[in-house]
Amino acid sequence: MDDQPGDSHRGPCVIASANGRRSVELAYKRINEEGFDPAVAVVEGVGIVEADPDDMSVGYGGLPNEDGVVQLDASVMHGPTHRAGSVAALENILHPAQVALKVLQTTDHCMLVGAGALAFARANGFPEQDMLTDKARKAWLKWKHELGPGDHWLDTDQSDWDPKGERPSLRHMAPPGWPEGVPFTTGTINCSALTASGDLASCTTTSGLSYKIAGRVGDSPIVGAGMYCDNDVGTAGAIGWGEAVIESCGSFDTIREMERGATPTEACRIVLERIIKHSRRQHMRYRDEKPLFNVQLIALRKDGAYGSAAISAGKNGIPFAVCDEAGVRIEHGPTLSLE
């Protein structure tokens, strides 16, 4: 693989998925100009996207579950203490990443879910509000009207198990249809930071898979799947089809590849290939066995090297946001060759 721009970078840096351009800029400023802890800085950074009604994959304005309810997931990990906090299926709270940080800071737990996460948020003074915007509500209603092969309940001819659920089927299924014109997201935002002293932190927050079954939890709040931080090695985060990332411990695996000597971009590519190999749900593959789904991994190494890669993207590669002493920008990482 050709050298990537982030391979030679060293020193303080904040990176994020492409929707985090403003997030990395704010987090970098908080860390390097105001002395913020990196975990606090990345949580504040992603808060910009959580509050943006035009980003339909995160926070306020995110697309709801199949019942029309916005359920949010978030996680944060602090490198120096190797502590993590997360919340899942959280309703009515604008900033789930802040609640996850509070779990990290004030409890000896790692994860709170559903009603318990909401009660915890209330106890800590987080105000409640309706998280479903008119735009997201209209998208959900259109999905309801078009409900069919694009939902998350597998039809008989989509299942890769026999009708009794006793053994996997070896049939190869065509990809499921998705109603034309119905918005759909698997997106999120991951943001990671490295300080001048070499400390790391990472945060992921999302509204999850569009029109998911109520209570579904993706990779974003699961430490080691959608986000992981090892202060001796680096950080990694994931965006895309969460089930595939969970089943391969994607972010943890990316850090282990960096620990073995891979550059951040190489680590992302190695793990993506492993994710494809391990994702054997036939309804998520084309007849030629290429994946129907997409995953993007983002990684930041302890020395400041950074990178990203994806299974698929546009002709210019997969975009991601970077901020360092040279300023904020969008860079592009490679995609896997699936020809």
What characteristic shape results from the CA principal axes? globular
Quick one: biggest sheet? 8 strands, mixed
Instruction: Average the pLDDT over all residues and give the rounded result.
Output: 90
Strand order of the largest sheet: 4-3-2-6-5-1-11-12
Roughly how much helix do the residues carry, as a percent range?
Answer: 25-40%
Helix and strand composition category: alpha+beta
Please provide a written account of the structure.
This protein has helices at 21-34, 38-50, 96-106, 114-123, 134-145, 242-246, 250-259, 264-278; strands spanning 13-17, 72-78, 83-90, 111-113, 189-194, 200-206, 227-230, 234-240, 295-301, 306-310, 318-324, 327-333. The protein is α+β, with helices and mostly antiparallel strands and 339 residues long. It has one domain: Glutamine Phosphoribosylpyrophosphate, subunit 1, domain 1 (4-Layer Sandwich). The strands form two sheets. An eight-stranded mixed β-sheet has the order 4-3-2-6-5-1-11-12. The longest helix has 15 residues, at 264-278. 53% of the residues are buried.
Briefly, what is this?
The protein has 339 residues and is α+β, with helices and mostly antiparallel strands.
Task: Map the helices and strands.
Layout: E1 13-17, H1 21-34, H2 38-50, E2 72-78, E3 83-90, H3 96-106, E4 111-113, H4 114-123, H5 134-145, E5 189-194, E6 200-206, E7 227-230, E8 234-240, H6 242-246, H7 250-259, H8 264-278, E9 295-301, E10 306-310, E11 318-324, E12 327-333
Parallel strand pairs: 3-4
Antiparallel strand pairs: 1-5, 1-11, 2-3, 2-6, 5-6, 7-8, 8-9, 9-10, 11-12
Helix pairs in contact: 1-2, 2-3, 7-8
